[in-house]
Specification:
The complex is a heterodimer of chains A (234) and B (788). Chain A has one domain (3-231): Rossmann fold (3-Layer(aba) Sandwich), CATH 3.40.50. Chain A is 28% helix and 29% strand. Chain A has 6 helices and 10 strands. In chain A, the strands form 2 sheets. Chain A has a 6-stranded mixed beta sheet, with helices on both faces. Chain A starts with a strand and ends in a 12-residue tail after the last strand. Chain B is of the alpha+beta class. Chain B has 22 helices and 22 strands. In chain B, helix 2 (18-55) crosses helix 9 (307-347), helix 7 (251-292) runs parallel beside helix 19 and helix 13 packs across helix 20. Classes of the chains: A alpha/beta (234), B alpha+beta (788). The interface between A and B is medium-sized, with 34 and 29 residues.
Amino acid sequence: MEKILEIKDLRKNYMLGEVELQVIRGISFEIFEGEFAVILGPSGSGKSTILNILGGIDQMSGGQMFFREKPLHDANDAKLTDYRRNNIGFVFQFYNLIPNLTAKENIETASELSVNPIPSGELLEQVGLAGHADYFPSKMSGGQQQRIAIARAIAKNPDLLLCDEPTGALDVKTGAQVLELLLDFNEKYKKTVIVVTHNTAIAKIGSRTFYIKDGLLDKVEANLNPLRPSEVIW
Amino acid sequence: MKTRSILKKSIRSIVRNRGSYIACVIVLSLGILMFISVGSILAQVQNGIQSYYEEYRFGDAFATLQQGIPDNYIDKLKEIEGIREAEGTLTATYKANLGSSQEIIKIKLISAEPEVEKKINQYRYTGEPLKQKNDIWLGKAFYGAYGFENGDTVGLQVNGREALFTIKGTFESPEFITIMSDEAAFPDEKAYTVALAQNEALEGFTSQYGIVNELVFLLEEDVSFSDVEKALREKLSKYGLNSLIERKDQQSHFYITDEIAQMEALATILPAIFMFVSFIMLYIMLKRLIEQERGEIGAFKALGYKNQEIIVGYMLYGVAVSVLGFLLGLLLSVPFGAQLYEVYQNMYSLPYPYFTLSWDICAGAFILSLAVSILSVFAGARSVLSIRPVDAMRARAPDIKGSKLNLDHFFFRMVLTKSGVMAIRNIERNKKRCLLVIFSIIAAFALTNVIYAFSRCANDILTTQTQTVQIYDIKAGLSGFRDSDNALGEIRRIDGVLDAEGMIILPVQMNQMNLKEDIAIYGLDRNSDLYKIMGIDGAYYQPPENGIMLSKRIAKKLQVGLNDAVEINSPYFREEIKLYVTSLIEEAMGPGCYMNIETLSSLINGKEPVLNQILIKADAAEMGLIQEELAGFPMVTDIANKERIIEGNKTLLESFMTFIYALLIMAFLMGFGAIYNVSRISLAEKKRELATLRILGYRVDETAAINSFEQWLMLAVGIVVGFIPSYLLRDFVAEAFSTDYVILKPQISVQSVLAAVLCCILAVMLANAAAKREIKCYELVEVLRERE
């Protein structure tokens, strides 16, 4: 398998008043094409920071990052925007849908950026919300909103789908449905998915799990028999 | 009342949102600036003139006589019931040997007896007293224009010989706040002035001993001019009564009253517009702030703070804006007021030389700014009262109202980008706010549009007047009426004179029932090539063969229409004449009363045709020599050349344009302030959405387009709707600023609209540039962390 993403000695520091806080203290790993990776760690371990850096919305303080062997650690804002525009799909814990746009229009905000988008109709079918195309986010439940957010993230047909606690605000049943969608995307379109979570059960559906603890990579576990979300005991 | 913590919170919030508050303060300060500066000038001029009139006993009625009366006859006039006081002066106008030999500069000498206390139209002088026979005090503006010093001499052409007068100083009188000759449209301090001279000197020059030819009257209290007019007319008509007018028609008073009325209009409408916009801005900001701080308000309430304590915190926003706006406005009004006052001071001999702030007006401005701010704060913050702690500390219930607009329609899909859809939905969800912003844009658009139209109009009138109406190069005024053929013959013989035409200017009193107007009839050749009558529509008119042509404004004053008769009195007519109004005209600038020269001439002199003005078309190369020769003619008392008129117009326009540019800048700042503010509010509301789009891969430009689309859309609506108030404001300004001599009809033209549109576009572009900069600086991770 080919490497899609590689980080070497990734570091991230924040200034807290006059004190420098080391959030990521030197992490290195590789992500392969078509992989469903899970980054697991307790709250405050730095996992979301890693995802933000991988997604090009946060700058690293040290280390290197390569996307398909192209360096991104010294990329400027415009280059990072292009990187996100052409390669990345984001799913957030709190959906971040645009309240003034309907479900379909929300999806189209992403698809219109892509040269090879997945049609919004197809995505709505896929997330089971074909009948909600003209609904505004305020008229949908959390689960429905998250499904639209996933549809929006994959509408660009991105190489890499980054999900930050995608089930964090959902009940167990809805969370499982959402994960099913992410897995579908991974399998159907052969795209890479990285899920950041503190929920250890989610590790069971990923192909590899990266355990983060106190800003360091504690261990990496390969999952030879990933389960379907419906098979996981939550 | 415990408000310390709340006030602290408010102060920090003001500091955090300083950009919006500064914009609000600036717009409010512009309103205050206009209110204080124009209001102070108005108060200064109005009160100053009023007390000046009272202190110096300005007359209630004025008469000029052709022949003059013995001064002891004045006592007889005092016997008329209702007349408290009467005085007379001997006056005579002479050419002054000043300037180049081509110009005619005139000084009207007025007799003075410094040792006798004047009871009416008293004067004050600066300099030395008049002691010698040929000592004079000059009008201030003229004295300044020629840079005279006390002790200088000025030569006057008296009876064909030069008489030297020693300048002893300057004088001011309520009668001469504006000094202008009867023929001039505007004061020209270099061409004409009045001077006080010893009575003895005037009697010697005019050989009229013990005679007066100008009279002034003070009336008893509760007696009006009409009560004494008939009796005065009867007693004076046998002495060739040129004019008998009441105070309101006295030239200087009339001119300054007109100016005061214009200032009043200015002092009302402009501050009102700026205050209204600042009210809107503050209201919108507060509404937004309350939404943003619901949680904090809930927390305060949960802690036990009362509604009024929380409201006090928000009142601080209003008080801060009003105090800062007032202080800034006050500060700016000093130089602005001084500049504006200088414009007036150059035109009039105002009783006070310098601009001073009226503290009453300042206090009024402060109360007004406080009222506007507190009212807007209360309107914006009253929702605080209805917030329950339990609701406030919960996330706000989602807005479940869907859009009523079907933007999925084929048309919208073709026309609108996603940014457009978001912008329209945002407007739809914030209708009230957007409406208020559109009002602000309308105000800025209408104001800019009308100011520009107004400046163009003033410019056009003055340019058109010299290019297409007064086409002559030189106008020579004659001493009395002359035989037309002889006078024209003499002038045509001068080398370089290409054409010469006769003209009559005749001051008359026009009556219709009990309505009276003192005006000048212009007698023109029906086929005149040198003076055209042009309507405001640009069409040319000929003076009627019979009857009289009146401007609609004069006709309205006399309440006459077409084919109605008017009675005309003039000392040059043997008897009162009745003429029919045969045509009505609306002209931009002019006397508003025309007749065929032949008809008018026959009314003055039944035999040979006469004239008292000669219009000359001259060879440009010979202009100087022609004027020099004209100045040598004893019959020529006045020379007006077009270049001088154009130069005068230019000076007038320059001072006027300075004021116009200042207004344009203010209108722009107002538009920018409103748009900038709402843009900031909108950005703050959409921060998370815009950051999400940036994360999705939208570039800064594309993200900023959502915000700018909203601004452009509101701008477009504001401009389209802004046409109606533009026309209303135009009509208001035109009415307020038109006078009997000048009718202002500013046209909302392509240029004025373009100027206003450009001004608004610039405001939007600047606001959008600021928004783009803000979006560029978003820390995406931080924005996503922020929870509403």
